[in-house]
Amino acid sequence: MKKGMIIVLNGVSSSGKSTLAKEITKLLPDFFTFSIDDYDLVIEKMEDRENQRLIPVETEYFYYKNVAMFSDRGVNLILDQILHDPLTLQNFYETLSSYPILLVGVHCTVEELKNREKSRGDRQIGQALSQLSFVHHQEIYDVEVNTYTHSMKECANAIVNRLESNLPLLGFKKSLKEFESSK
């Protein structure tokens, strides 16, 4: 069975990944969104966080294993997540190194990130800015979009056009080499 394609939307909180994922599914109805935030809700239900009864393995470990299982069964996914620390990167690269991946950098201006955090009301103010100190520093993307300077539809079209082009998808493999050389 052919492995399902994985579109990885990587960007800081409030950069527009979730909205962009929904827009992409309008253009690619055979793709399904799989958000790390939604997956964390599954883990949260299993744990008793109030009493510190926690699963002793990082959520991303299980998340990427599940991504691989879906892809192994031919399911195409859009990942809405943040590559945010060395352990997450290690889980990401080790688990998905043999999978077809379109690596997408999702960007937004600092001012707009601040505005989105305030208007949403469900985010810690300053969270996106703090994440900028480590997100997008060593990733090499197949395509990059800016959800402030372009509409979600334009961003989704750019991603779909890149996916459907004849150009090889090298972002993941180049990013993996960067990660390995930085260890």
TrEMBL record:
<dbReference type="GO" id="GO:0005524">
    <property type="term" value="F:ATP binding"/>
</dbReference>
<dbReference type="GO" id="GO:0016740">
    <property type="term" value="F:transferase activity"/>
</dbReference>
<dbReference type="InterPro" id="IPR027417">
    <property type="entry name" value="P-loop_NTPase"/>
</dbReference>
<feature type="active site">
    <location>
        <position position="37"/>
    </location>
</feature>
<dbReference type="Pfam" id="PF07931">
    <property type="entry name" value="CPT"/>
</dbReference>
<protein>
    <submittedName>
        <fullName>AAA family ATPase</fullName>
    </submittedName>
</protein>
<feature type="binding site">
    <location>
        <begin position="11"/>
        <end position="18"/>
    </location>
    <ligand>
        <name>ATP</name>
    </ligand>
</feature>
<dbReference type="InterPro" id="IPR012853">
    <property type="entry name" value="CPT"/>
</dbReference>
